[in-house]
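Internal tracking record. Fields below are filled automatically when a chain is submitted to the structure queue. Please do not edit lines marked as system-generated. If the sequence contains nonstandard residues, flag them in the REMARKS field before resubmitting.
Queue: standard
Priority: normal
Entity type: single polypeptide chain
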Amino acid sequence: MRRVKVLHVITTLPRLSGAADNTRYTVNLLDPRHYEVHLAFGPAYQDVSQVAKHVRCIIVQPLVRAISPWNDLKAILAVFRIIRTERYDVVHTHNSKAGIVGRVAAWLARVPVIVHTAHTISFVASESPLDNWCFRIADRVCAYVSNKIITVSHLNTATYLDAGIGRPAQYVTIYSGVETERYSVAAERSPCRRELGIRANQILISWIGRLNRQKDPVTFIRAAQRLSDCLPDARFVVVGEDPLGASLEEEMKSTIRDLGLQDKVRLLGYRSDVERILSASDLVMHTSIYEGLGRSILETMLSGVPLVATAVDGVREAIVPYERGGLLAAPQDPNGLAEAAMQLLGDRSLASRLALAGQSWAKERFDVSQMVAAIESLYTELLNAQSVNE
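SYSTEM-GENERATED OUTPUT FOLLOWS
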Protein backbone atom coordinates (compact mmCIF):
# COMPACT_ATOMS: atom_id res chain seq x y z
CA MET A 1 0.00 0.00 0.00
CA ARG A 2 1.32 3.48 -0.91
CA ARG A 3 2.63 5.50 2.00
CA VAL A 4 0.91 8.77 2.84
CA LYS A 5 3.12 11.71 1.84
CA VAL A 6 3.25 14.46 4.44
CA LEU A 7 4.98 17.83 4.31
CA HIS A 8 5.58 19.77 7.53
CA VAL A 9 6.40 23.46 7.14
CA ILE A 10 7.95 25.62 9.89
CA THR A 11 9.76 28.95 9.57
CA THR A 12 12.70 28.26 11.89
CA LEU A 13 14.02 25.13 13.57
CA PRO A 14 16.22 26.32 16.47
CA ARG A 15 17.48 23.98 19.18
CA LEU A 16 15.59 25.79 21.96
CA SER A 17 11.95 26.15 20.91
CA GLY A 18 8.77 24.37 21.94
CA ALA A 19 7.32 24.61 18.43
CA ALA A 20 10.51 23.23 16.86
CA ASP A 21 10.68 20.38 19.40
CA ASN A 22 7.03 19.54 18.79
CA THR A 23 7.65 19.46 15.03
CA ARG A 24 10.83 17.38 15.33
CA TYR A 25 9.09 14.82 17.54
CA THR A 26 6.20 14.60 15.07
CA VAL A 27 8.24 14.09 11.91
CA ASN A 28 10.60 11.67 13.65
CA LEU A 29 7.90 9.48 15.18
CA LEU A 30 5.28 9.32 12.43
CA ASP A 31 5.42 5.63 11.46
CA PRO A 32 7.76 5.45 8.41
CA ARG A 33 5.99 2.28 7.27
CA HIS A 34 2.85 4.32 6.64
CA TYR A 35 4.16 7.87 6.14
CA GLU A 36 6.77 9.44 3.89
CA VAL A 37 7.63 12.61 5.78
CA HIS A 38 9.32 15.76 4.48
CA LEU A 39 10.19 18.84 6.55
CA ALA A 40 10.53 22.32 5.00
CA PHE A 41 11.93 25.36 6.81
CA GLY A 42 13.66 28.68 6.20
CA PRO A 43 17.43 29.13 5.98
CA ALA A 44 17.92 30.86 9.36
CA TYR A 45 18.15 29.32 12.85
CA GLN A 46 18.00 25.69 11.78
CA ASP A 47 19.14 22.73 13.84
CA VAL A 48 18.55 19.44 12.03
CA SER A 49 20.85 17.42 14.28
CA GLN A 50 17.86 15.86 16.03
CA VAL A 51 15.83 15.19 12.87
CA ALA A 52 15.64 11.49 12.00
CA LYS A 53 17.55 10.27 8.95
CA HIS A 54 14.41 9.02 7.21
CA VAL A 55 12.93 12.55 7.17
CA ARG A 56 13.80 14.56 4.07
CA CYS A 57 14.73 18.17 4.93
CA ILE A 58 14.03 20.97 2.44
CA ILE A 59 15.31 24.54 2.85
CA VAL A 60 12.96 27.25 1.54
CA GLN A 61 15.31 30.19 1.01
CA PRO A 62 12.73 33.05 0.97
CA LEU A 63 10.95 31.85 4.14
CA VAL A 64 11.77 34.42 6.84
CA ARG A 65 10.23 35.33 10.21
CA ALA A 66 9.61 39.02 9.62
CA ILE A 67 6.73 40.27 7.48
CA SER A 68 8.29 40.83 4.05
CA PRO A 69 5.74 40.94 1.20
CA TRP A 70 8.26 40.22 -1.55
CA ASN A 71 9.96 37.35 0.29
CA ASP A 72 6.61 36.04 1.48
CA LEU A 73 5.30 35.86 -2.08
CA LYS A 74 8.48 34.12 -3.21
CA ALA A 75 8.16 31.68 -0.28
CA ILE A 76 4.57 30.83 -1.25
CA LEU A 77 5.69 30.15 -4.81
CA ALA A 78 8.66 28.07 -3.64
CA VAL A 79 6.49 25.91 -1.36
CA PHE A 80 3.85 25.66 -4.11
CA ARG A 81 6.47 24.26 -6.51
CA ILE A 82 7.66 21.75 -3.90
CA ILE A 83 4.09 20.59 -3.29
CA ARG A 84 3.26 20.28 -6.99
CA THR A 85 6.43 18.28 -7.59
CA GLU A 86 6.03 15.92 -4.64
CA ARG A 87 2.20 15.66 -4.64
CA TYR A 88 1.65 15.50 -0.89
CA ASP A 89 -1.47 14.03 0.66
CA VAL A 90 -1.13 16.20 3.78
CA VAL A 91 0.50 19.58 4.37
CA HIS A 92 0.92 20.38 8.07
CA THR A 93 2.11 23.89 8.95
CA HIS A 94 3.43 25.29 12.23
CA ASN A 95 3.37 28.76 13.79
CA SER A 96 2.34 32.04 12.23
CA LYS A 97 4.50 32.83 9.18
CA ALA A 98 4.91 29.25 7.94
CA GLY A 99 1.24 28.73 8.72
CA ILE A 100 0.29 31.45 6.26
CA VAL A 101 2.86 30.66 3.56
CA GLY A 102 2.33 26.90 3.75
CA ARG A 103 -1.46 26.97 3.83
CA VAL A 104 -1.77 29.38 0.91
CA ALA A 105 0.67 27.28 -1.14
CA ALA A 106 -1.14 24.05 -0.23
CA TRP A 107 -4.52 25.54 -1.15
CA LEU A 108 -3.20 26.76 -4.51
CA ALA A 109 -1.76 23.28 -5.14
CA ARG A 110 -5.07 21.64 -4.12
CA VAL A 111 -3.59 19.46 -1.41
CA PRO A 112 -6.31 17.10 -0.08
CA VAL A 113 -5.64 17.75 3.63
CA ILE A 114 -4.32 20.98 5.16
CA VAL A 115 -3.57 21.03 8.91
CA HIS A 116 -2.14 23.90 10.93
CA THR A 117 -0.72 23.87 14.47
CA ALA A 118 -0.93 27.16 16.39
CA HIS A 119 1.81 26.70 18.98
CA THR A 120 1.12 30.09 20.54
CA ILE A 121 -1.04 33.15 19.94
CA SER A 122 0.10 34.54 16.59
CA PHE A 123 -1.53 37.94 16.82
CA VAL A 124 0.17 39.09 20.04
CA ALA A 125 3.70 37.95 19.19
CA SER A 126 4.98 41.23 17.77
CA GLU A 127 5.68 44.53 19.48
CA SER A 128 4.11 46.15 16.40
CA PRO A 129 0.29 46.49 16.56
CA LEU A 130 0.23 46.60 12.76
CA ASP A 131 2.09 43.27 12.49
CA ASN A 132 -0.29 41.70 15.01
CA TRP A 133 -3.28 42.99 13.05
CA CYS A 134 -1.82 41.54 9.84
CA PHE A 135 -1.36 38.12 11.43
CA ARG A 136 -4.89 38.17 12.84
CA ILE A 137 -6.39 38.94 9.41
CA ALA A 138 -4.12 36.43 7.66
CA ASP A 139 -5.08 33.71 10.15
CA ARG A 140 -8.76 34.46 9.57
CA VAL A 141 -8.29 34.04 5.82
CA CYS A 142 -6.15 30.90 6.13
CA ALA A 143 -8.70 29.29 8.45
CA TYR A 144 -11.01 29.00 5.43
CA VAL A 145 -8.58 26.66 3.68
CA SER A 146 -7.66 24.61 6.76
CA ASN A 147 -9.23 21.23 7.36
CA LYS A 148 -8.16 21.32 11.01
CA ILE A 149 -6.38 23.73 13.33
CA ILE A 150 -4.48 22.13 16.19
CA THR A 151 -3.97 24.10 19.39
CA VAL A 152 -1.79 23.07 22.31
CA SER A 153 -4.38 24.03 24.93
CA HIS A 154 -8.15 24.42 25.08
CA LEU A 155 -7.74 28.00 26.25
CA ASN A 156 -5.77 28.81 23.08
CA THR A 157 -8.71 27.53 21.04
CA ALA A 158 -11.02 29.90 22.88
CA THR A 159 -8.66 32.82 22.21
CA TYR A 160 -8.53 32.10 18.48
CA LEU A 161 -12.30 31.72 18.23
CA ASP A 162 -12.80 34.98 20.15
CA ALA A 163 -10.60 36.64 17.52
CA GLY A 164 -12.90 35.41 14.77
CA ILE A 165 -10.43 32.85 13.43
CA GLY A 166 -12.11 29.71 12.13
CA ARG A 167 -15.11 27.73 13.37
CA PRO A 168 -15.31 25.56 16.52
CA ALA A 169 -15.54 22.36 14.46
CA GLN A 170 -12.17 23.10 12.86
CA TYR A 171 -10.28 23.03 16.14
CA VAL A 172 -8.75 20.12 17.97
CA THR A 173 -6.49 20.36 21.02
CA ILE A 174 -3.47 18.05 20.98
CA TYR A 175 -1.12 18.68 23.88
CA SER A 176 2.50 19.20 22.91
CA GLY A 177 4.49 16.09 23.77
CA VAL A 178 7.45 15.87 26.15
CA GLU A 179 9.84 13.00 26.89
CA THR A 180 8.03 12.19 30.12
CA GLU A 181 10.50 9.54 31.31
CA ARG A 182 13.43 11.91 30.95
CA TYR A 183 11.94 14.39 33.39
CA SER A 184 9.89 12.22 35.71
CA VAL A 185 12.82 9.97 36.69
CA ALA A 186 14.48 12.10 39.36
CA ALA A 187 18.15 12.88 38.82
CA GLU A 188 20.43 13.13 41.83
CA ARG A 189 20.02 16.53 43.45
CA SER A 190 23.39 17.05 45.13
CA PRO A 191 25.85 16.72 42.21
CA CYS A 192 24.27 19.49 40.16
CA ARG A 193 23.95 21.77 43.19
CA ARG A 194 27.65 21.28 43.93
CA GLU A 195 28.52 22.14 40.32
CA LEU A 196 26.47 25.32 40.62
CA GLY A 197 28.03 26.22 43.97
CA ILE A 198 24.75 25.90 45.87
CA ARG A 199 25.12 24.90 49.52
CA ALA A 200 22.76 22.44 51.17
CA ASN A 201 21.01 25.16 53.19
CA GLN A 202 20.52 27.51 50.24
CA ILE A 203 17.33 27.82 48.19
CA LEU A 204 17.75 27.53 44.43
CA ILE A 205 15.15 29.19 42.19
CA SER A 206 15.46 28.57 38.45
CA TRP A 207 14.14 30.12 35.28
CA ILE A 208 14.23 28.17 31.99
CA GLY A 209 13.43 29.45 28.51
CA ARG A 210 14.35 31.70 25.62
CA LEU A 211 15.79 35.09 26.51
CA ASN A 212 13.24 37.09 24.52
CA ARG A 213 10.33 39.47 24.98
CA GLN A 214 7.70 36.70 25.12
CA LYS A 215 9.38 34.87 27.99
CA ASP A 216 10.24 38.13 29.83
CA PRO A 217 13.30 37.00 31.81
CA VAL A 218 13.92 40.57 33.04
CA THR A 219 10.83 40.29 35.24
CA PHE A 220 12.39 37.18 36.78
CA ILE A 221 15.49 39.20 37.66
CA ARG A 222 13.33 41.87 39.32
CA ALA A 223 11.39 39.21 41.24
CA ALA A 224 14.74 37.72 42.33
CA GLN A 225 15.67 41.07 43.86
CA ARG A 226 12.44 41.11 45.91
CA LEU A 227 13.04 37.53 47.04
CA SER A 228 16.67 38.21 47.86
CA ASP A 229 15.60 40.95 50.28
CA CYS A 230 13.57 38.36 52.24
CA LEU A 231 15.84 35.36 51.65
CA PRO A 232 19.48 36.54 51.62
CA ASP A 233 20.79 33.01 51.07
CA ALA A 234 18.57 32.33 48.04
CA ARG A 235 20.33 31.83 44.71
CA PHE A 236 18.92 32.13 41.18
CA VAL A 237 19.88 30.65 37.82
CA VAL A 238 18.69 31.47 34.31
CA VAL A 239 18.91 28.62 31.81
CA GLY A 240 18.55 29.44 28.12
CA GLU A 241 19.51 31.57 25.17
CA ASP A 242 17.70 33.29 22.35
CA PRO A 243 18.26 31.24 19.20
CA LEU A 244 16.19 33.65 17.09
CA GLY A 245 18.40 36.70 17.45
CA ALA A 246 16.33 38.97 19.71
CA SER A 247 18.18 38.29 22.95
CA LEU A 248 17.56 40.24 26.15
CA GLU A 249 20.81 38.95 27.65
CA GLU A 250 22.50 42.36 27.75
CA GLU A 251 19.45 43.96 29.36
CA MET A 252 19.40 41.14 31.90
CA LYS A 253 23.08 41.64 32.74
CA SER A 254 22.50 45.36 33.12
CA THR A 255 19.51 44.75 35.41
CA ILE A 256 21.53 42.33 37.54
CA ARG A 257 24.27 44.96 37.96
CA ASP A 258 21.80 47.76 38.70
CA LEU A 259 20.07 45.66 41.38
CA GLY A 260 23.35 44.47 42.92
CA LEU A 261 22.61 40.80 42.25
CA GLN A 262 25.94 39.77 40.73
CA ASP A 263 26.56 37.26 43.54
CA LYS A 264 22.98 35.97 43.56
CA VAL A 265 21.96 35.46 39.91
CA ARG A 266 23.84 33.38 37.33
CA LEU A 267 23.12 33.17 33.60
CA LEU A 268 23.97 29.61 32.60
CA GLY A 269 23.21 29.86 28.88
CA TYR A 270 21.94 26.88 26.92
CA ARG A 271 22.00 23.57 28.81
CA SER A 272 21.26 20.16 27.36
CA ASP A 273 20.77 18.76 30.88
CA VAL A 274 17.72 20.74 31.95
CA GLU A 275 16.45 17.75 33.92
CA ARG A 276 19.52 18.03 36.22
CA ILE A 277 18.87 21.75 36.80
CA LEU A 278 15.28 20.91 37.69
CA SER A 279 16.34 18.20 40.13
CA ALA A 280 18.60 20.72 41.87
CA SER A 281 15.89 23.40 42.12
CA ASP A 282 13.54 24.18 45.00
CA LEU A 283 11.26 26.30 42.81
CA VAL A 284 10.93 27.26 39.16
CA MET A 285 9.57 30.59 37.95
CA HIS A 286 7.98 31.11 34.52
CA THR A 287 7.33 34.71 33.44
CA SER A 288 5.86 34.66 29.91
CA ILE A 289 3.62 37.51 28.81
CA TYR A 290 1.85 35.18 26.34
CA GLU A 291 2.16 31.44 25.83
CA GLY A 292 0.78 28.41 24.03
CA LEU A 293 1.19 26.29 27.13
CA GLY A 294 4.90 26.33 27.88
CA ARG A 295 7.19 23.34 27.41
CA SER A 296 9.38 24.30 30.37
CA ILE A 297 6.24 24.32 32.54
CA LEU A 298 5.50 20.73 31.54
CA GLU A 299 9.10 19.67 32.11
CA THR A 300 9.02 21.26 35.56
CA MET A 301 5.72 19.60 36.46
CA LEU A 302 6.99 16.22 35.32
CA SER A 303 10.06 16.72 37.51
CA GLY A 304 7.87 17.26 40.58
CA VAL A 305 9.16 20.79 41.24
CA PRO A 306 6.69 23.51 42.33
CA LEU A 307 6.09 26.44 39.98
CA VAL A 308 5.25 30.10 40.13
CA ALA A 309 4.09 31.30 36.71
CA THR A 310 2.19 34.05 34.98
CA ALA A 311 -1.56 33.62 34.48
CA VAL A 312 -1.54 33.78 30.67
CA ASP A 313 -3.14 31.69 27.94
CA GLY A 314 -2.54 27.92 28.21
CA VAL A 315 -0.46 28.29 31.37
CA ARG A 316 -3.78 28.60 33.23
CA GLU A 317 -4.76 25.20 31.86
CA ALA A 318 -1.69 23.49 33.31
CA ILE A 319 -1.35 25.28 36.64
CA VAL A 320 -4.43 25.55 38.82
CA PRO A 321 -3.56 27.52 41.99
CA TYR A 322 -3.93 25.52 45.21
CA GLU A 323 -4.91 22.46 43.14
CA ARG A 324 -1.92 21.46 40.97
CA GLY A 325 1.44 22.65 39.74
CA GLY A 326 1.92 25.76 41.84
CA LEU A 327 0.68 29.35 41.98
CA LEU A 328 0.01 32.08 39.42
CA ALA A 329 0.62 35.83 39.30
CA ALA A 330 -0.06 38.57 36.79
CA PRO A 331 2.46 38.97 33.92
CA GLN A 332 5.17 41.62 34.31
CA ASP A 333 4.50 41.80 38.06
CA PRO A 334 7.72 40.97 39.95
CA ASN A 335 6.09 41.74 43.32
CA GLY A 336 3.24 39.32 42.69
CA LEU A 337 5.61 36.61 41.49
CA ALA A 338 7.85 37.09 44.54
CA GLU A 339 4.89 36.95 46.91
CA ALA A 340 3.65 33.69 45.34
CA ALA A 341 7.17 32.24 45.56
CA MET A 342 7.43 33.21 49.24
CA GLN A 343 4.13 31.47 49.92
CA LEU A 344 5.36 28.19 48.42
CA LEU A 345 8.81 28.43 50.00
CA GLY A 346 7.22 29.15 53.36
CA ASP A 347 4.75 26.28 53.15
CA ARG A 348 6.64 23.23 51.92
CA SER A 349 3.63 20.98 52.53
CA LEU A 350 1.53 23.05 50.10
CA ALA A 351 4.37 23.21 47.59
CA SER A 352 4.87 19.44 47.69
CA ARG A 353 1.16 18.71 47.35
CA LEU A 354 0.80 20.99 44.32
CA ALA A 355 3.98 19.64 42.69
CA LEU A 356 2.90 16.00 43.06
CA ALA A 357 -0.57 16.75 41.70
CA GLY A 358 0.98 18.56 38.76
CA GLN A 359 3.37 15.68 38.10
CA SER A 360 0.54 13.15 38.01
CA TRP A 361 -1.58 15.35 35.73
CA ALA A 362 1.28 15.94 33.29
CA LYS A 363 2.31 12.28 33.12
CA GLU A 364 -1.17 11.32 31.99
CA ARG A 365 -1.32 13.83 29.12
CA PHE A 366 2.00 14.91 27.68
CA ASP A 367 4.02 11.96 26.45
CA VAL A 368 5.32 12.40 22.88
CA SER A 369 3.88 9.03 21.83
CA GLN A 370 0.38 10.22 22.79
CA MET A 371 0.85 13.41 20.78
CA VAL A 372 2.02 11.62 17.64
CA ALA A 373 -0.71 8.96 17.93
CA ALA A 374 -3.32 11.73 18.09
CA ILE A 375 -1.82 13.43 15.01
CA GLU A 376 -1.75 10.15 13.07
CA SER A 377 -5.38 9.55 14.02
CA LEU A 378 -6.29 13.04 12.82
CA TYR A 379 -4.55 12.49 9.46
CA THR A 380 -6.39 9.19 8.99
CA GLU A 381 -9.74 10.76 9.84
CA LEU A 382 -9.24 13.65 7.42
CA LEU A 383 -7.92 11.49 4.59
CA ASN A 384 -10.82 9.05 4.97
CA ALA A 385 -13.26 11.96 4.88
CA GLN A 386 -11.65 13.19 1.67
CA SER A 387 -11.97 9.74 0.11
CA VAL A 388 -15.67 9.61 0.96
CA ASN A 389 -16.23 13.09 -0.50
CA GLU A 390 -14.51 12.10 -3.73
